[in-house]
Each structure stands twice: as C-alpha cells, then as structure tokens.
Design a protein that fits this description.
Layout: H1 3-21, E1 27-30, E2 36-37, E3 39-44, E4 47-52, E5 66-69, H2 76-80
Antiparallel strand pairs: 1-2, 1-5, 3-4
C-alpha cells in the first residue's frame, strides 16, 4: 500500500463521520467564528469532506473544526455567490461507472 492509500484508509472513517454530521442540509461554521457558511463537499486527499461553500481558508485542513448548525447562512462570500442553503445531504456522492457489457 502506498503512502496516499494508507492515509486515505486512515482518514476514511473520520471523513465519513464529518459527512454524517452535515446530513440533512445543515449549514456550518468554523470553530471560533460566528460566520455561518453554506456547505459543499470538497475534495481533500482523494476523499470528500464538507467545507465552506465559498472555499474560505480555514487556517488548516482539520475538517473537524467545521461544525454543523441550523442557523442561516451569514457569510458574505457565500451569499454573494448565491449559496443561501447547503446542497449537501450526506453520504458519499461518488458516481459509479457502469462497465457491465463492455
């Protein structure tokens, strides 16, 4: 197993837990901030994790610092981009490729 595969395997469960925390179209905020962001899945080391829809820098990529909330979106960048609600509903969003019959 190469280094990236081992890292993805180690972070797979925490990434799934992060997705589960945001199931149900919850918005999110970064720990230590009162700004509420729309949530979008973002690619991170080959995994999908919920993050701010405006892609604001988080200071690190500790995705556990991004917390779920039912509060409305207050982020100016999210709002100006038309992201007034979260589009993420939970669970993996990887589409499967149907190779049957090829």
């Amino acid at each position: 197993m190469n280094g990236i595969s081992a890292l993805q395997e180690a972070l797979g469960a925490p990434a799934a837990e992060a997705r589960d925390r945001f199931a149900g179209r919850l918005n999110g905020y970064l720990e230590g901030s009162d700004v509420v962001h729309a949530v979008r899945l973002q690619g991170w080391l080959g995994l999908e994790v919920p993050g701010p829809g405006c892609h604001v820098g988080t200071g690190s990529w500790d995705f556990t610092r991004f917390k779920a909330t039912t509060s409305p979106v207050t982020c100016g960048r999210c709002r100006s981009a038309g992201l007034l609600t979260s589009s993420f509903t939970g669970g993996p969003h990887q589409q499967t490729l149907d190779l049957e019959g090829i």
